[in-house]
Amino acid sequence: MVQRFKLNEVDILALALNGFFALMHLLFAGRGHNLLIGAAFLAGNAVVLGFAAADARGLIGRATLLHFVRTFYVQLFYTAYFTRVIVLSQLVWDGASFDEFFYRMEEAVFGLQLAVLLPDTFGHLRALNELFYFVYFAFYILLCAPSWLLFLYQRYAQAKRCLFVVTASFAVLYLWYVFFPVHGPKYFIPELYARWYSDLDGYLFAWIMRSIFAEANLAGAAVPSSHVAISLIALILHARYLRRTLWVVVPLTLLLWISTVYLYAHYAVDVLLGWAVVPPLFWFSTVLYRWMNRRITLRAGGNAPAARTESD
């Protein structure tokens, strides 16, 4: 029997995420443009199925630009997922947050607010500010790097596995943020909100990140820090599959973690909690991938054993 759709593990995850976001926006259809946004997520599923149908018909050749887009299209959804998570959390909780609890936790653990202390102490160092703006921006490179590099090395199974692990980990965090909003110090601490990065001058990346911060509504996804959790997962993937890249990835990741507090996007306890959630996230996403891979392989090849990636 000819397959109509060649759905892989990432496709199924993308369909589920788009379905979740469509449903949540339909629940709040009477507010703003939520009905249209919900329809847009359903249209996103049409894109997923379109790629899967083209794949089933052999229309996507290996090592082509279309193959790259077909593999990584889900990363184009990340921004939509994250920004809508913020909006949904504000709708669910009517703008409330749990910042007071984590503000007090910060005081209990560190005796002060590091998000206030660090920029107060070092904010006059323009080159240092630029470095932290850069590494904060570099998060978007770090989360893509493992799967993209493996794809370029034509290690396609491992690239797909890395992509799935990152996307599934994001998915769990998205669900958490909807129902457990924490805005972060730059929204909760009045003096930081009043400054809004006017105290942290830099150069090119200062301008880029200030522009993003000014336009984006990011109040609601602070705990645990996705920058910390996902960058640590990416670091683990580099250590497993791309060890020769660690000399670049390790220092970037360490600086990124500091930047989340220095740029007062997160409390320092968010960093600790970001580290803490990585073991269950990595375990869950890996087990889920293996289970889905086994089911897909059995469906495609009868009773053949599940295909194994190089890492297995």
Task: Give a verbal description of the structure.
This protein is mainly α and 312 residues long. The protein has one domain. It has 14 helices and no strands. Helix 12 (226-241) crosses helix 14 (268-301). The chain is globular and about 60 Å long. Residues 303-312 have low confidence and may be disordered.
Provide keyphrases for this structure.
312 residues; 73% helix; mainly alpha
Q: Can I get a quick summary?
A:
This protein is mainly α.
Q: What's the assembly state of these chains?
A: single chain
Q: What is the number of domains?
A: 1
What is the strand tally?
0
Number of DSSP helical runs: 14
Write the layout of secondary structure elements.
Elements: H1 9-27, H2 34-56, H3 65-72, H4 78-93, H5 99-110, H6 114-122, H7 126-152, H8 156-179, H9 185-188, H10 190-195, H11 204-215, H12 226-241, H13 246-262, H14 268-301
Helix pairs in contact: 1-2, 1-4, 1-8, 4-8, 7-8, 7-11, 7-12, 7-13, 8-12, 8-14, 12-13, 12-14
